[in-house]
Amino acid sequence: MQNIKKILFSIILVITMFMLPAHHVMADDNSNVNNTNDTSVKDIKEKGTLVVGVSADYPPYEFTAKVGDKTKYVGMDIDIARKIADDLGVKLELKNMDFDSLLVALETHKIDGVISAINPTPERRKNVDFTELYYSGKQVILVNEADRDKYQTKADFNGQTIGAQTGSLLYDLVKEQMPKAKVKGLAKLNNLVIALQTGKVQGVAMDQPTAEAYAVNNKGLVIMDPKFKVDADQTGYAMAFAKGSDALVDAANKSISEIKEQNLITNDYIPKASKYMKTTTEDNDLIDYWSYFLKGIEYTLLITAISVVIGFILGTLLALMRLSDNKIAHAISVAYIEFIRGTPLMVQVMFVYFGIGAVVQSLPALVAGIIATSLNSGAYIAEIIRSGIDSIEKGQTEAARSLGLTKNQTYRYVVIPQALKNIWPALGNEFITLIKESSIVSIIGVTDLMYQTQLVQSATYKGVAPLFVTMIIYFIMTFSLSKVLGHFERKMNHD
Prior knowledge:
495 residues; alpha/beta; D-Maltodextrin-Binding Protein, domain 2; MetI-like fold; five-stranded mixed β-sheet; 19 helices; 13% strand
């Protein structure tokens, strides 16, 4: 109960900030630009945690493994981050999200650092600070075994489609060095492998250790060497920190130097990652991951339930404002509804988490997801309620007023009950849609059903089977809700 109160309080706080003019946010954001005092290490030690962002779908660097009934983030990158945190004397906290969202999260201070096999390119150095390189790998292309003889060189892919992770060095390499091939970018490597197995792409560009992991665990996949031309400083990987965090970078470099001196990556980190990968391969039946799906269902239903309540309250308020004779209230309602309906939910989720979250530093991803879906749903519910009220004949209102009812009483006892009966099917559709649309919050690391599905894909190296299970679960949830809504609809019609 206490946690729910905290979530609701955070939602109210951020919704209030969401309605503030944009220049207030910018003013607060710019207030730190001129801060030349580097307190990065001091701040980390004071809070006692080092929050590091990862994209845990890139074995052996960072991936997930099932240890008992719990999900564990493992891999050489995770061990490096843990070493840095231990040397700082703090706990390591990991946040898993899409690869192309990591640097955004770092720049908006949602995390303290990023370690996810990131190449410190000149473009990235303009926005974040990097440590020295901790590892260098080779870039290859994963292809179907049936096409082993067909694709031997880069030129063999002319006119074909190559998949690469969005925002990665490999995406740029394919685009620049294979100009006659089409490049398809996706945020998750698992989805690119699925695209390869289903013939949507003819190859997937990735780091060699990662390609070997997928090839070992999928008999139908093999590796080919396209002989990419890469500068020496581009082949390596480094950890990223916020711009101006010189002290934190220096502290991380000390840990990385020790790792190199003791040869920990070769002697300890990679063998440990390989062991987890081997264990996963030996026991990767989907039934063993039921707890993953169960946790995803729990969060999906929580997000949907809270968003439905807030969305309905907000939608009712906006509908009444739009129908009001008050021009200011009417204008605010129209502007809000048109703006929210005119922008994608994904953008709204990212804006609330990364944009407003840059001001409200402690805003959790779960709360941000609930806020975004609630604000989005409220705009659509407002139009549903408004149309329902407009469908009531004016004679009903006039009759009620002639009997001495006030305007508020007329709405409460005459208009709203009849309108609710008319709009119930449309409201039901919106609630069902909300269950499915809540899957978008996975992009900011909320552990909903879609997020958990991606963890299962990463842990089992299976792409299609976990998606099929997720489809069945979503169908069961939406079908059950439609039956409940249908029961109340028949009851209202009977009355």
